[in-house]
Design brief:
The complex is a heterodimer of chains A (420) and B (80). Chain A is of the alpha/beta class. Helices cover 40% and strands 15% of the residues of chain A. Chain A binds chain B through residues 11, 22-23, 26-29, 135-141, 159, 161, 186-187, 189-191, 193-194, 197, 206-207, 210, 241-242, 290, 292-293, 301-305, 307-309, and chain B through 5, 9, 11, 34-35, 37, 39, 41-42, 46-48, 69-80.
Amino acid sequence: MERLQGLKCRECGRSYPSSPVHVCEFCFGPLEVEYDYELIRQRVSRARIEAGPKSIWRYADLLPVELGADGEPVVGPAVGFTPLIRARNLADELGVKELWVKNDSVCHPTWSFKDRVVAVALGKAKEFGFDTVACASTGNLANSVAAHAAEGRLKSYIFIPADLEQGKVTATLVYNPTLVAVHGTYDEVNRLCSEVADKYRWAFVNINIRPYYAEGSKTYGYEIAEQLGWRAPAHVVVPCAGGSLITKIWKAFKELRLLGLIPESRTSMYAAQALGCGPIVTMIKNDTDVLVPVRPQTIAKSLAIGNPADGYYAYRVAKDSGGHGEHATDEEIIEGMQLLARTEGIFTETAGGVTVAAARKLIEAGRIPRDEPIVICITGNGLKTPDVLHERLSVDVTIRPLLSAFDQALADLKSKQGEK
Amino acid sequence: MARMRVRLTFPSELVQQPIIYRLVKDFDIVPNIRRADVRADHGWMVLELEAAEDGLERGVAWLKTQGVTVDPIERDVVLP
């Protein structure tokens, strides 16, 4: 793979050949994929991308994994190229001129943006010759790894905390992975998985394959730019858990500019986190590069990482891009989910509620101007975790199967709350 | 001998304490510090710890009782 130069430490800059490693042996800093952009520039063009498949693989020239001999992706052929929706109703509600929703709640096959990173990670795992993949997860990542492993004919081990809700367990078990439920605290499960990854020769997607896995998130940014007519938006609001996604969307825009695929422009990046687990946003608000770990206490489980590995880099992107960050309370998260649903017909998970709520607050505070293009990033589907809304929503009216009963109920409803 | 690569995060009240010294002295752990940032109100350290397995386990458990956050160097291994 000529365009892939290898891996480079983000801290000390040491180079490594492309291999399944993720940490610099000298300084223990994280490794990142390095490309030969001159070579890529000679090959890539808007026309070449537009002629590609309607999936993340239209950007294969910018990803660290090779397509198969038949030109088809090795794993995850239909991942990505999700809708970018002009959200006019939500724009009216928020009082802004141009608002877009990048909707990965309908990403194929497991309804979250994790499908992007996992497709790239498992493709790379196969390229490295692994026959077994693994991850430790409480939700979307587990679903995605299990699904892609099934499709890619890979064995998979999924580690979960033993007290995980049955609904989430089923949504992973159905793909027939080996599911390992671990008793213990989050820290104990975390440490065990790190040790397992060290001992067994498996492709642990967010450990030894992490540099490649993370690159899959760039496709979210490429798609935004292409779907906007080959331009980067002025403002992007991104939910943050580990902090990788915001850095990779930022990187995607930088790469597209470097390659001459979009014009020079400034994009401000905004981090959205729950108040009960918002260490990155706290850094941004306090203007400090020191990340203070927290114990997550939020309904936004899909963003609940108390000591995010890419927290510092996420903070830097928000600062360097002229963006900012905002927290959302649990109450605001629910309101955000409901707001997106009732204005745009999109049912997002709590992470999306965080993003909508944070965007609203950033706009109201004047951090995001009302007259410039804004993209908000919706990264997961609400149907996976509807429980958070159960206490908030109820049937409007229950009637006997008679037209007269309905007529009466309708009249009562109209007089009570106005026509819906 | 057992080895462990960890990231230690120190709250402000521990910044002035000789935590690493105690690891060496009380648990016979050999620390090999690769990167660190210690300030008046906060500190973190990325290092490799080497010791007999029992000493390593007891040392890490002691760190936690002192209020030090101990993570694998990858930090967020369990992801949502």
